[in-house]
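Complex record, four chains
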Amino acid sequence: MSKWIPLWLHKLSSPPTFYRFAGALRPWLLALALLTGAIALYGGLVLAPADYQQGDAYRIIFIHVPSAWMSLFIYGVMGFAAFVALVWRIKLAEVVAMESAPIGAAFTFITLVTGSLWGKPMWGTWWTWDARLTSELVLLFLYLGVIGLYHAFEDRRQGARAAAFLALIGIINVPIVHFSVNWWNTLHQGSTIRLLGPSTIAPGMLWPLLTMMLATKFYYLASLFGRVRTDLLDLESGKDWVRTIATGSTLQ
Amino acid sequence: MNPTRKRRLIVVLLVVAAATVAVGLGVFALQQNMNYLFTPSQVQSGAASSHKTFRLGGMVKAGSIQRSKTSLLATFTVVDADGAMPVEYTGILPDLFRDNQSVIATGHMDNAHFVATEVLAKHDETYMPKELKDAMAKAHKDKPMPEGSDAGGSP
Amino acid sequence: MTAAPTAATDNVILLETRELGFYRQDEPVFASLNFRLRSGELGLIEGDNGSGKTTLMRILAGLLHVDEGELYWHGQPLQREHCVGEVLFLGHQLGLKADLSPSENLQVAVGLHGYRAQTTLSAALAEVGLSGYDDEPVRRLSAGQKKRAALARLVLLPATLWLLDEPYANLDRTGIALVNRLLEEHLARDGAALVTSHGAVSFHGGEPQRIRMHA
Amino acid sequence: MSRPGLANACAAMLRRDLTLAWRRRGDIAMPVLYALIVTMLFPFALGPEDTLLQRIAGGVVLVTILLAMLLALDAMFSSDIEDGSLEQLVLAPQPLALMLAVKILAHWLTTALPLIVISPLLAGMLHLPTAVMPVLVLALLLSTPMLSLLGAILVALTAGTRRSGMLLALMLLPLCVPVVIFAAGAVAASQQGLPWLAPIAWLGAALVLLLVLAPLACAAALRIALDA
């Protein structure tokens, strides 16, 4: 059984196979993202009780926290894909890394904006230069740098490799964002959801948060698959399988 | 040894040596207090006396908040385990500002009290409904806050 | 040293390509290229514009990644570390700093590669016909003189395999004769060379191996 | 046939880059002039109030020098790529990372060092107390090599692109944030009469790591950039 998985992955990394695979999966992922997102929003904004300390204002965590997780998660995916792209020169990995960057940048931006909206009433400031906030901002700039570098090259595959290298250098920032609240005494509170030990959140608030986390993951995959499909068509425009699609005959 | 391996070995050795030096310097740096954040007791013992401006961290003493009726002036006392410091602030206080809340105030000393130019409230990482909180508070009456009271702690 | 050993079948195979191919944006630049280059042998790479001559040179020099096929050096799969210092590459860009004089440029090259036995800097400059230009920055030299300054590296530096991309370009008749003489001497020392050219070459040291490039 | 030693190769590279810089002395003066003019603008923009200028002096000098270095960074490999010298360097029998380290050193000597030399003057224009100057210079001595090293990696990455100046700034400046924080922290601490060794130690730790890792990363980045 374990022999089949690498074989399957190898087959999947061929552009036409992935194109069909992603195309088949994408509507389902999008539907799942919408469904879980709606449930999570309803659970978070209506069903979950108000916080003992922050009242209703805490409800922004249902957007802020999943976005923040995604900003790091996507960077992790991008870093991994970048590594694969640089070492094994797999075209699909290059495309996945480069198409993850704009989605990650968007989530990082949402994190910063919602955090700022939350910080004003709670802390008393829109922005403070503490370690968590600053490192998250640096994360946004790293995403933008990767996107910018990718588009600066005329040869897209070369651009992808250069940007992948930058993404790998920047990966050092990910643990800094994650652990900054533990390493430095920051204004930003510590982590609520812990893998080890009990989480410090009531169950009625936890489940919408986790559902939203699922929703953002589904959305990311759906969005990524869509972007990768478009990119593959563009990159492989000279190949037969793309011609077959372009001329209207189905490739099934 | 073939030259490729030799070169790799040299690179690895260099990286290890650099990492060792860096860790040593890091440990040295950690021993120095880089935080300009002081607790009331530290301030009273004179630790902050060399600073013109510094940050004061601690908990708002229950019942100490007094707001002026005519202006935005508010006075309150920030406490830690064994110190207390009266604080003056003119401006809009954050929503979370209340009794027993961890706060970080930036400002300077004026005689025996602290004049703040900015007051930030640090909320903790605990989220729970009010009813549950009340029930828990009843159960542990002598512990007013679960966490977040470490605003003056070391990094 | 006289009489270059031509088509020396008894000599060792220095470089071998098997089914070498290269793609740019998934369009093949060239495909399934097979040839063997023995020591003491000259390979003449022929092909039209855009047939991938320069690309092949850059692949063999180790500047470009091999997309398809294999490269062997002394019968072993080629790795950059194995042929380090044995390959001398002369590309379209000559690698000369315009603000330095020819001899200053060569000093840097010697600093990186070392001297070949029994050569000196001034002798090399004299051989390529550039003595007397010691204090002139390369910027002020003519295109042909710049080429000659770059060719002085061939005289000066130790290497087994020469990769010369368009060595005859910009040169006058004596310059072309100079390149041919340098090549003959190199082959006589059991060196090998690959030369690209789209013009005909009048090489007197025997019949070179002709390698046709096509996609 | 004799292969030159590493020391000879390094010396040849260093001599070459320094000679080239000397032949174009005007380019060395540019960042210095730029830093002087930018620093001069602050008293005009903020008013010549001593206490205010004093408070911002350390930060302003650091940021100005960072920006001045950014100006010169772009040229680190560009001429070498244009005339093919970089190809020759990549193909030379010497370890590329070491050769690049020498190039970075030459670049630091010709751009950062003049800036450090005039930094007391810049700080003086903003009324930074003389007692703080040694700490400022020390912070600069530790932080400017880091900017050169980090910059070299990014310049190498953008080596294959056409217009890379703005892109370089976008990529480099976020990475410089920690460097600026600690360097400015040391100056500010010294200005307030506080122990300033801790941020200097952090700078030193980061510099030691970068000294080893950055040339390796730079070599890898250059191979990617040339591979086209």
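Note: Residues 142-155 of chain B have pLDDT under 50 and may be disordered.
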